[in-house]
Design brief:
Elements: H1 2-35, H2 39-52, H3 57-69, H4 73-86, H5 91-103, H6 107-120, H7 125-137, H8 141-154, H9 159-171, H10 175-188, H11 193-205, H12 209-222, H13 227-240, H14 243-255, H15 260-267
Amino acid sequence: MKKFILLLFAIGSAVFGDNISEAQEYFNRGISNYEFQNYSKAINDFSKAIELNPANADAYYNRGLSNYNLKDYASAIRDYSKTIELTPNDSDTYYNRGLAYSDLKEYQLSIRDYTKTIELNSHFVNAYNNRGFLYNQLKDYSLAIKDFTKAIELDANYSKAYYNRGLAYDNSKNYALAIKDYSKTIELAPKDSDAYYNRGNSYNHLKDYPSAIKDYTKAIELNSHFANAYNNRGHLYGFKGDYKAATKDAKKACSLGSCGLFDMMKKNGYLKD
């Protein structure tokens, strides 16, 4: 009887070993398909690898990445959760699950995952930036600014963190500091039209209209389809009494889908040829 049990174990080990080897082949092919952005094929391969080896955390993780790239965020979350069950201390998995929750607008769950990411890896700069972005969305500007500041401490050339902190300062009506951060963003990323546009808005709030017009103009140079930049510049031209320039901007903004200024000027008889 004892020998029979050992024989069964030996046979089982051989079969299990074959499964592991075949699972690895499917996994490797899945990685190749993923790299070539064949995400549906990659999912099929990773699923087969999981079927053959249910303990393969990497297969769940990469299937999660593939589902995420197909915008199937719910499936991605399920795969990341299984990965966490198998490898509970992997910061990348928490981070990516946080991205998926964020895309589903499950902000509190996303913040929870970014926080866990940071607990596991205190130098995970993108986790600070992304958590700060969500705090900004939830109007908790002090926590947002704290996270963006930490991201900048970790990477002094992280232009997006300066930009996002500028937005948080803007939202908390600290326009001078917002301008400082947008200026740093522009220094690091001189073709960022959004940074010029938002710095223009901050100058506008401080009633520095020439600087605001200059920034809106630069935003338009970088992005000729920037409707809000035309709209806001047109408002300032109108405020200065230059209705011809204001009309030109209002018409352009309206052609791009933002007709608020054009309709107001038309209603009040300010449009000029």
